[in-house]
Specification:
The protein has 222 residues and is an alpha/beta fold. The protein is built from eight helices and six strands. The chain has a four-stranded parallel β-sheet.
Length: 222
């Protein structure tokens, strides 16, 4: 289904009744509605970042629901699509934190390829209908993913922005890992603790301390 080490790790999950029901529901949704991301990109986060390569996890809610925005990576939009407000604020904090100028696009694939798992709690959404696929089974699946990452022997940084992401904190019990949490980068909440939280420099400091190559957070212009 994914094409790397995730398939072996998740093989039992695929067999569970909830996942089979979810799969049936999703297939029907794609047949009858406009769903994002494209079906081929639902597991993009896993395809771009294998389990073994994970250094950082950034947890989002559900995919962007605007036309052709979502590409299967939390907070990321396809090249050529206008950057949503939350992503603009993420890039603003990146500049404040590390002095990195915002790129001319909003795709975070370069982060994913370095070991940043850009994981949404829910992996699909109906066009123009946020949270439309909540409570259908995706959260059960992605919670299991977080539990699997929690078992990793190598240290991982979990970045939790906003109440939905922070609710996953109880799944992260391994003392080797680092949890960075703050308000969501949305314009509605960014000024309540997201701005000034310095997640990028803190992440790299932790990785370096543990002998792990840091993330190059700079995204190349296209």
């Amino acid at each position: 289904m994914i094409g790397n080490d995730w398939d072996l790790l998740l093989k039992d999950e695929y067999k569970k009744d909830y996942f089979k029901n979810l799969q049936e529901f999703i297939i029907n949704e794609y047949k009858t509605k406009t769903i994002y991301p494209k079906m081929s990109e639902i597991f993009n986060a896993f395809q771009k970042t294998s389990y073994d390569d994970i250094k950082v996890v950034i947890i989002g809610q559900d995919p962007y629901h605007g036309e052709n925005e979502a590409e299967g990576l939390s907070f990321s939009v396809k090249v050529g699509i206008a950057k949503p407000p939350s992503l603009i604020n993420i890039f603003s904090e990146l500049k404040s934190d590390l002095g990195i100028e915002p790129p001319n696009h909003g795709s975070l694939i370069s982060w994913a390829k370095q070991g940043v798992l850009l994981l949404n709690s829910t992996l699909t959404v109906v066009k123009d209908s946020p949270r439309s696929h909540f409570n259908r089974g995706w959260e059960t699946f992605t919670d299991e993913v977080i539990k699997l990452i929690n078992k990793k022997e190598t240290p991982v940084v979990f970045i939790l922005w906003g109440s939905d992401a922070r609710s996953k904190k109880n799944l992260i019990t391994n003392k080797k890992h680092l949890i960075l949490e703050s308000a969501h980068p949305s314009p509605l909440s960014a000024y309540r603790g997201f701005f000034g939280s310095k997640p990028f420099s803190k992440t790299n400091a932790f990785l370096i301390k543990n002998g792990i190559k840091p993330i190059d957070w700079k995204i190349k212009d296209i």
